[in-house]
Amino acid sequence: MKVISTEKAPAAIGPYSQGIVAGDFFFASGQIAIIPETGEIAEATIEAQTEQVMKNIGNLLAAAGVDYSKVVKTSCFLADMGDFGAFNEIYAKYFTSKPARSCVAVKTLPKNVLCEVEVIAYLGE
C-alpha cells in the first residue's frame, strides 16, 4: 500500500490519510469543502461547497496519477437531501463517466459542511 498526500487538498483532520493506493485502486478519504490554501470552509451554499469538494477530489486524483474518468465508485453525503438537485448539477460536470454511486443524507458532517464525497478510482489501463 502507498499513502497519497498533496498540499493541494485539505490535510487530514484526524488519524487517517488523504488517500491510499492498494493494488490497482486508489481510495480517497472523504473530501469536504475546505480550501487547502487557507483552511477555511467555502461559502455556505451547496453550489460553492460542492465545487470546492470537486476541486479537492481532482487534486487528490492527480496526486494518485489519475483523473475523474478513472473513478469507479463515489459515496456522497449531504447534510440536507433538499440540496440533492443542486449537488447533482455540479457533480455531473465532473463525473461525466457516471461511476457507481451512493448518496445519503446524514445528520451532521465534519465542520458542519453541506456535503462530503469519497471516491475509489481504478489505476489500470
Question: Secondary structure elements and their pairing?
Answer:
Blueprint: E1 2-4, E2 19-22, E3 25-28, H1 46-63, E4 71-78, H2 84-94, E5 100-105, E6 115-122
Parallel strand pairs: 4-5
Antiparallel strand pairs: 1-2, 2-3, 3-6, 4-6
Helix pairs in contact: 1-2
List its salient traits.
single chain, 125 residues, alpha+beta, six-stranded mixed beta sheet, 6 strands, 23% helix, 26% strand, globular
Structure characterization notes:
There is one protein chain. With about 120 residues, the protein is an alpha+beta fold. It is built from two helices and six strands. The longest helix has 18 residues, at about 45-65. The protein is globular and about 35 Å long. The two termini are about 20 Å apart. The relative contact order is 0.24. The mean pLDDT is about 95.
How do you describe this structure in short?
Helices cover 23% and strands 26% of the residues.
| Proportion of residues in helical segments | 10-25%
Number of strands: 6
Which structural category fits the helices and strands? alpha+beta
How many strands, which pairing sense, and closed or not: the largest β-sheet?
6 strands, mixed
Instruction: Please count the helical segments.
Output: 2
User: What's the overall average pLDDT, rounded?
Assistant: 97
- Side by side, the strands of the main sheet go 1-2-3-6-4-5
Termini separation (Å)?
19 Å
